[in-house]
Design a protein that fits this description.
elongated
């Protein structure tokens, strides 16, 4: 569930950056589908394809590392 919110938040940030960079140069025909992707991501929380280049791989590694550190501290 955390990955759903992180990826959605990342999508929102990217769209806001795109809007800022292109200010009045992008039409609503481009912006509405971008926001539609965010809406679709929030409404359909299923990941069909796992990418090896996903930023979520870094999050998963950090969670594994954190749990490993916690287990080491519990043993000590």
């Amino acid at each position: 569930m955390v990955t759903l919110f992180l990826t959605s938040a990342l999508m929102v940030i990217v769209i806001l950056i795109i809007r800022f960079l292109f200010k009045n140069k992008l039409s609503f025909l481009v912006l509405y589908p971008l926001w539609g992707l965010v809406l679709l991501r929030l409404l359909v929380p299923v990941t069909i394809i796992e990418s090896p280049l996903s930023i979520m791989n870094l999050v998963n590694r950090s969670e594994e590392h954190t749990s490993e550190l916690q287990s080491r501290m519990a043993i000590s």
